[in-house]
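lol ok so funny story. i was supposed to be doing the assay writeup but got distracted and ended up predicting the structure for this chain instead. priorities right. anyway since i did it might as well share w the group, maybe its usefull for someone
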Amino acid sequence: MIYTKDDIKQLDRVTRLKIINAVTGIKPANLIGTKNNEGQTNLAIFSSVVHLGSDPALIGFIARPQTEDVGHTIRNIQDTTYYTINHIHPEFIKNAHYTSAKFESEISEFERCKLTAEYIDDFKAPFVKESHFKIGLRFKEAIDIKVNGTTLVIGEIEHLSIPDQALVNDDIDLEKTNSVGISGLNSYYTLQKTQSHPYVRIQEVPEF
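and the output, tada:
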């Protein structure tokens, strides 16, 4: 199947969303937890979380254009500067998936989707208790992407909780974290480690 630019434009909205969201391959499935200045919690699923750098330890994600119904996550982050990123595991994929609904701001997705808000070491944003792999971040920068109205939200890691069994030879084995990936709008995948190779130095590149 081959699609031209015109073919893509002529697809119905949902089909286009599913196809274009899937073309980059399997992406990490995460729940981002926030709280506003009034203490109202929010939880939303994201598949756009990306590593930006290790020193400082920066992670980014893409926030959709804000409307009255969409954008509670980024508004809460801009208000309080703290948020969490939590891996999704098979046991609660369904609960996590339905946080994507456009709930009103006074409704907590934690409560509506039966997930548990957890506060660790006085960190100011809620983690997902059911997640085994949790990241606490502080907001650093937002970069507006003018071509489609989205925003790259950048945060620095201030808290990191990793399952003990996932640390193997000073590396993280994501298969052992039992985290899942996402493709398109609603397809979820488990992760299986297939190979491991050494850090690449030019003199060690083999002949292929």
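The longest strand covers residues 134-145. The helical segments are 5-10, 13-22, 72-80, 93-97, 109-112, 174-177.
back to the writeup now i swear
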